[in-house]
Write a structure and sequence with these properties.
The complex is a heterodimer. By secondary structure, chain A is of the alpha/beta class. Chain A is about 35% helix and about 15% strand. The chains are: A alpha/beta, B mainly alpha.
Chain lengths: ~475, ~120
């Protein structure tokens, strides 16, 4: 007699209904009574089909049980106990993948001196002070970066450039002329091109704001919240806080720049963990359209590092804010909590990631001297270089990278149900924590699982009560975050 | 699928991809269900489908039958394993059927291929 047993999935409940998040396919199915009963009966281990049918015969017709078992097997929620589950195939692209986003670090200088900064702070990878890279990218290198972005976008009709720093606006002149050059070259190549940048807002001036608005440059502002939180770490080199200088300029920008939604990007530390307060301040008082939060990237033991207990606290706060998002979603209102928005989008598509992000595939970072690395966080690091904007990148290196960083290599992740959406987490964070990009970020596993579970519940709730809300995610491509 | 409801897009994809997993062999026969297989159904080669035989064609009609054996020869060597049994038109005998524009009329012009012919080339 055939024994059947449960395969890999994560169950969750929403709106009084039971759901499965299947692993590794990332498909979400809603259960009915019969399928729920079958899964419950198998919770303690494998059983023969006959045995199971007999047990459930009081409640369900045997044909119905048989059909349901077949459906559960078909979606790989159940399997014959004797058959080993097939591992995720390891597909490595056979030829270069079109580049979607090129992050261009136009300077590695900054007018602030945030202690936690991954580029300047205690955990920096590249010597940005006395290193070999120029402090500012030259116009010539920036043009070469544009050519590289257009060339590497290959068959893709769109190209996207994100300007980054240091403080991006410290090299505004090069940024400005590069955008003009890129528009001309993209038109000649028959491609669309668009731009975005990240800035700390302290150097915004009326003419810069005007330029960003007319050129439709997407803007992300790094800001940590109300004055007392912003000024804890986001300080000038003399220790003075930057809020007083940044806030009025942000208001001026939001007032004028209406052509694209402007988002705030918050770094969360042990000392600044009041998510709801930060969110309210940034949306209600400053007027941001959306706010994204990221726990600080740090080696363990730093004063501002979020501890294990801190992650629990953070999760509770995220859940609160996610509750507000749900309420808004059910009433078709906008809510700017971008972390949940991004996760819902990924859940809606059912992305099953082999890699945590597009670094080294669809996204690359360029340092001020034109070196191309996995992403902007590694820009300038020889150990993580893929080539340079003049000579191009090495496909061999990219393939090696893809081979060695595939989720199948991360044995710690092989039993985790959240791996389709996490895939081990940020390479840079792993490098900072464990000294290697191919290590999974085991310090925040509980946090990822807790947060993904919350997002699944919210997804299920919306799918049951206001499914039309999810249509907005249907065609939208998941954009690559640059933070 | 009656007991599981696909919720996200991947679930819809899983549903459609696995739809054909437990299907039976179907005949190359037209007509209403259940004879008509669900699309996509792309029969390829006579050995992969149940062909009703030469008494009736695949539409169930007989109008196009009674063609000379050479018609079968073309039929088989284009879409079947049969190429092994006829000269290799891709590599060694590209002109083998050059003089045979219409098999019914010109079939006598199809000649045999001998190893000697290849040596001459």
């Amino acid at each position: 007699m055939t024994n059947i047993s449960l395969r890999e999935f994560h169950p969750f409940e929403a709106a009084g209904r039971r759901f499965l998040y299947l692993v590794p396919s990332a498909a979400v199915f809603a259960l009915d009574d019969c399928s729920s009963a079958i899964l419950d009966s198998l919770a303690d281990g494998p059983r023969p089909v006959d045995d199971l049918t007999r047990e459930l015969s009081a409640r369900f017709d045997s044909v119905e049980v048989g059909d349901t078992i077949a459906e559960l097997q078909r979606v790989r929620a159940l399997g014959e106990s004797s058959a080993k589950p097939t591992p995720l195939p390891k597909f490595i692209p056979l030829k270069p993948v079109p580049l979607q986003t090129l992050v261009v670090n136009v300077t590695n200088q900054c007018n602030l001196a945030c202690t936690y900064c991954y580029e300047y702070g205690e955990d920096k990878i590249v010597d940005t002070e006395n290193g070999k890279q120029p402090k500012f990218m030259s116009e010539e290198t920036a043009r070469e970066a544009v050519e590289f972005a257009l060339r590497e976008s290959r068959g893709n009709p769109h190209a996207h450039i994100t300007f980054f720093g240091g403080e991006t606006l410290m090299n505004f002149n090069v940024l400005k002329s590069t955008i003009a050059y890129a528009r001309r070259r993209a038109a000649e190549a028959g491609k669309d091109i668009d731009f975005s940048l990240t800035t700390n807002a302290t150097l915004l001036r009326p003419d810069i704001i005007e330029f960003l608005a007319t050129e439709r440059v997407g803007v992300t502002i790094s800001i940590d919240g109300p004055e007392e939180m912003q000024d804890k770490f986001r300080v000038f080199s003399n220790g003075a806080g930057s809020y007083a200088m940044a806030a009025p300029k942000i208001k001026a920008l939001l007032e004028r720049h209406r052509s694209r939604p402007i988002g705030a990007r918050v770094t969360l530390t042990r000392q600044t963990l009041d998510v709801r307060k930060i969110y309210r301040h940034l949306t209600e008082e400053l007027g941001f359209w959306e706010v994204g939060f990221a726990p600080v990237t740090t080696a363990p033991g730093r004063d501002y590092a979020i501890s294990d207990g801190g992650f629990d606290h953070l999760l509770a706060q995220f859940r609160d804010l996610a509750g507000d998002f749900l309420e808004a979603a059910l009433q078709n209102r906008h809510h700017g909590f971008s972390n949940i928005r991004e996760t819902l989008q990924e859940l809606h598509h059912g992305h099953a990631k082999a890699y945590p992000c597009g670094a080294g595939i669809g996204l690359m970072g360029v340092s001020t001297d034109g070196n191309v690395a996995l992403c902007h966080r590694f820009a300038g690091s020889d150990d993580h270089s893929l080539g340079n904007v003049r000579d191009g990148v090495s496909w061999d290196k990219q393939q090696d990278f893809l081979q060695s960083h595939h989720i199948n290599n991360k044995t710690d992740c092989s039993t985790c149900w959240a791996r389709p959406i996490c895939a081990g987490g940020c390479y840079h964070e792993a490098h900072t924590r464990y000294g290697s990009t191919n290590r999974p970020n085991l310090h925040y596993c509980e946090w990822i699982r807790g947060w993904t579970h919350t997002c699944l519940e919210i997804y299920g709730e919306i799918a049951e009560k206001n499914p039309d809300f999810l249509r907005q995610f249907d065609d939208e491509e998941v954009p690559e975050k640059v933070s | 699928m009656k007991h599981l409801t696909p919720v996200n897009r991947k679930a819809a994809l899983v549903k459609s991809v696995t739809a054909g997993e437990n299907k039976d062999v179907v005949a190359l026969q037209q007509g209403g269900p259940p004879q008509q297989p669900e699309p996509p159904h792309i029969p390829n080669g006579c050995s992969l489908v149940f062909s009703p035989g030469w008494e009736a064609d695949r539409t169930g009609g007989t109008a196009g039958l009674c063609q000379p054996v050479e018609r079968d020869l073309f039929d088989c060597h284009m879409g079947c394993f049969w190429p092994a049994q006829v000269p290799d038109q891709l590599n060694h005998a590209p002109d083998w059927t050059a003089k045979c524009a219409a098999a019914q009329k010109d079939w006598r012009k199809i000649d045999l291929i001998f190893p000697a012919d290849e040596k001459k080339k």
